[in-house]
Amino acid sequence: MTNEVCCVFPFWSQSDAMNWDSNYAYLRRILPGLSERLPGWLWLMTWPQRSKGADVWRFSDDGLFNEKIVRFPWPYDTAMRSSVQAWDVDRFKLLDSQGITVYWMHQVESALQVKYGYAGSFNLNAHPATVAQQHYIIHKSLPYPFESQLPRLWTQMGGTIASDRVVFNSQHCYRMAEESFGLFLNEHAWEAIAAKSQVLPFGLVDEAMFDLKIPKPGIEQVPVVIYNHRFENYKQPQLTADALNEMRRRGHKFEVWVTQYVGQEIKAFPVDRVVGDPDQSVYLRNIAVPGLNVINSLHETFCISMQDSIALGQLPVAPRAVTFPELVPDDYPWLFKDEKEQLDMLDHILTTWPEEWVKWSGKLRAFAREVFGIEGYMDRYADILQTEALKPRKAKAKEKNRVKIERALDNLPHGDYPVTELSGKFRAQIGLQSQAMPNRRVVRELVDRGASLTYRNNSVHLRWAGKSKGESS
Fold it and tell me: CA-CA distance, 390 to 371, in Å (whole number)?
C-alpha cells in the first residue's frame, strides 16, 4: 500500500448551506472511512474561498477535517455553472505544487486540466492518477435549453476521456452518459470510456441508521410525507405540491415535513414542519418516523435523499424511471408511470394506512442494508483509488536517472521538508527539469521509500527518515 497526496475536488451546488449540499453529505459519510482504510494518505479538499462568488459560503464545522483531511482554498463561484466552467490557472499551479499524486474528481469538468494541462505530462510516472466520480450528466431530461448546457457537456466529456478511471453511481447515470456523449463521440471513443468505467451504486447506509428505532404508527397518528429534496425545477416540486394538496382535498389527513424551505417559493407547497439540520445525524433522527417520500423528479443520477428515506423504511412514491427502480426491490409496487397513477397510489396508501407501510417498511430497510451498505462501498472505493495510484509507478526511470535519484536520496538528511522547498533542491541534484521531475514525482520517490506525509503551515510536508537499512543504491 502506498502513501498518497489525494486532492478531493468536489462540486458545490449549495453555497447558503454547504453542510446540506449533496456532494458534501456524500464526502462527509465516506471520507473518514477511506482515511482509515488508507492511513498513509493525505486528503486535500478544494474549499470555497469566502471572497469568491456572488453569495456568502455558509458552513458549520462538524468535525470532518483533521490532520489528514484538510482544506485547500479554491476560487469556486457560487453559481454552479460558471464555477465548473471557470479555471484559475495561477491557483491551480499553487495546488499542483503541493505534489498531488491522485486527483479524485467529483467536478469532472476540470479533470482534463488536472490530468494533462501542466508540468509532468510527458512522463507516465510523473502523471497524476485521476479518478472521475460522475454524480450528474448534462442530458436532455433536464428542463433547460439543451444548447445552453453544451459548454458543460463538452467539458464533462473531456474530463471523462482524460480520467484514468470513471465511476458512475447508477446504471441510469451510465446510460445518460452514453446517450449524451454519444451525440458527439463515435463508437470507438465511447468504447474507450466504457472500458475504464464501472457502476458503483452509492453505499451510504451505515449501521447507525438501523440503530434508529422507527415508532410503530398508532391509531391516532397520521402518516408523515417526507420531502427531503431540494426544490430545483427538474424535481418538479409543483407537481408534488399539487398531488399532496389533491390528497387533502380528498379528505386524507397527513403531515408534510420538509428539510429545507428557506428561500423556496413553490406555490402552495404544503409544509407542516421543517426538520432539516446541517448535522447529518440530527437530520436522520428528525425524519425517523413512519411515512412515505413523494417526488416527481425528471432527472436524477442516484438520489441520496431517497436512499435515506428507504433506509428508514419510508415508502417511495416516485416515477418508475430515472434511478428510482434501482433503489428498491424488483417487486416494489409504488413507482408510477404518470400523474394519475401517482394520485391513485397515494390515495390507496393513505386510505389503508398503515397497511402498506407495515408490509414494506422492513423489506425496504433490509434491501438498503444489503445493497447499499457503507462498509463494502468504502472497501471497493479504497481499492479503486489505490489501484489507480499504483499505475504511474509501473513506468520505470531511465537507468541514468535512477542512479541520480538514488544518489540524491543517499545525500538527503533526515528531516521534515515542505514539498515545494524540497522539489527544487532535489531536481537540481538530479539535473532534471519539472517536466520530468514535477513535485508529485518527488513525493512518489520519497513515500515509496518510507517518507510520511503531513500538512501544516498551508503546505504538504514530507517527513524523511533516510533510506531503510539494506536498501540498495
Answer: 29
Burial class (CB in 10 A: 0-12, 13-18, 19+), 255: middle
Q: In angstroms, what CA-CA distances link 270 with 225, 238, 267, 333?
A: 10, 10, 9, 25
Q: Looking at per-residue confidence, does 472 or 122 come out higher? A: 122
Q: 49-69, pLDDT tens digit by residue? A: 888 777 788 899 999 999 999
CA angle 292, 297, 303 (to 5 degrees): 70
Q: What are phi and psi of 382, to 5 degrees?
A: -60, -40
pLDDT value, residue 220: 64
Neighbours of 17 (CB within 10 A): 17
Cell digits of residue 164? 484514468
Nearest to 430, CA basis, from 417, 452, 445: 445
Using CB atoms within 10 Å of the CB of residue 219, give its burial: 0 to 12 exposed, 13 to 18 middle, 19+ buried. exposed
pLDDT recorded at residue 470: 40
Q: What average pLDDT does this structure show over 330-344? A: 97
Q: Are 258 and 227 in contact (CB under 8 A)?
A: yes
- What is the DSSP code (8-state) at residue 185? S
Q: What does the block give as the cell for 71?
A: 482544506
3-state secondary structure of 455: strand
Give the residues across from 316 on adjacent strands: 293
The full set of domains in the chain, from first to last, is 5-201+375-391 (3.40.50.2000), 207-372 (3.40.50.2000), 396-464 (1.10.10)
Give the Cα separation of 353 and 219 in Å (integer). 10
Which residues, listed in sequence order, are joined to residue 91 by a DSSP beta bridge? Answer: none
Which of 136-145, 153-162, 229-238, 265-274 is most confident? 153-162
State how far the alpha carbon of 370 is from the alpha carbons of 131, 207, 459, in Å: 26, 11, 41
The stretches of 372-411 forming alpha helices (DSSP H) are: 374-390, 399-410
Tracing cell 479538499 back to the chain, one arrives at 45
Q: Are 462 and 453 in contact (CB under 8 A)?
A: yes
Specify whether the CB–CB gap between 329 and 367 falls below 8 A: yes
